[in-house]
C-alpha cells in the first residue's frame, strides 16, 4: 500500500458517510469506534471501494493481542492498523497487513525511546504527532529511514505543505475541509 498526500481520518459517522461518497480518497482511517460497529463500518467502506486502516488502540471493547489481531484481519478484513504499541505493530506485520506506528513527539527523550521501539518493530510507516514540527519530522525520517506520516494539530493547507516539504510522505487529518 502506497500512502501519500492527505489521508482522511474519521472520528464521527457523519464524516465517514461523507468519505464513502468522496471518489478523491480510496483510503479511510478509523480513529475511534466500538467493536460492535466495526464489522458494519468496514463492510460499507469496502463496498464503496475504500481501503480501511483502524487505530487498534482506539477500538472500544477490543483487546489487541494475537486473537484480537486475528479478528481484525480474518473477520473484519482491515487493510492495516495504526498503534502506539510495538507489540501490536509486530502482530500486524506477522499478519501481512499495513502497520503504522504512532509516535508522540512530546520531548527529546520520548523521541529517542520511540525510535528504539520502532527499530525493533520495524513498521511500514511512522505517524508523528503533532505533525506541525518540521524539524522533528525530518529527524525521524532521516534516522529511521521509514516513511513518515505527519498527523495531529494540522489545521491549514500551509501546515500540510510544510509537513510534506520536511520529509513526510503523507498527512493524516480529521479536519474535513482539508480532505
Question: How far apart, in Å, are the first and last alpha carbons?
Answer: 19 Å
Shape call: globular
Query: What spatial order of strands do you see in the largest sheet?
Result: 1-2-4-6-7-8-9-10
CATH architecture: Alpha-Beta Barrel
- CATH superfamily membership: Aldolase class I
Enumerate the spans where pLDDT stays under 50 for 5 or more consecutive residues.
Answer: none
Mean pLDDT: 97
Sheet having the most strands: 8 strands, parallel, barrel
Tell me roughly what share of residues is in helical segments: 40-55%
Number of domains: 1
Question: What fold name goes in the CATH topology slot?
Answer: TIM Barrel
Oligomer: single chain
Instruction: State the helix count.
Output: 7
SSE pattern: EHEEHEEHEHEHEHEHE
Structural class: alpha/beta
Rg over C-alpha atoms, rounded to the nearest angstrom = 15 Å
Query: Which CATH class applies here?
Result: Alpha Beta
The count of strands amounts to 10
Amino acid at each position: 500500500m502506497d500512502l501519500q498526500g492527505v489521508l482522511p481520518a474519521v472520528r464521527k459517522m457523519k464524516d465517514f458517510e461523507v468519505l464513502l461518497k468522496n471518489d478523491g480518497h480510496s483510503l479511510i482511517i478509523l480513529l475511534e469506534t466500538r467493536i460492535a460497529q466495526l464489522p458494519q463500518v468496514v463492510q460499507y467502506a469496502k463496498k464503496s471501494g475504500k481501503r480501511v486502516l483502524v487505530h487498534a488502540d482506539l477500538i472500544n471493547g477490543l483487546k489487541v493481542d494475537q486473537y484480537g489481531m486475528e479478528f481484525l484481519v480474518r473477520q473484519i478484513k482491515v487493510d492495516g492498523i495504526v498503534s502506539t504499541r510495538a507489540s501490536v505493530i509486530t502482530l500486524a506485520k506477522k499478519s501481512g497487513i499495513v502497520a503504522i506506528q504512532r509516535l508522540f513527539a512530546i520531548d527529546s527523550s520520548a523521541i529517542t525511546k520511540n525510535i528504539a521501539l520502532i527499530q525493533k518493530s520495524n513498521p511500514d510507516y511512522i505517524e508523528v504527532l503533532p505533525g506541525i514540527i518540521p524539524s522533528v519530522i525530518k529527524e525521524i525520517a532521516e534516522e529511521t529511514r521509514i516513511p513518515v506520516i505527519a498527523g495531529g494539530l494540522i489545521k491549514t493547507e500551509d501546515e500540510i505543505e510544510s509537513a510534506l516539504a520536511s520529509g513526510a510522505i503523507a498527512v493524516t487529518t480529521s479536519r474535513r475541509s482539508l480532505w
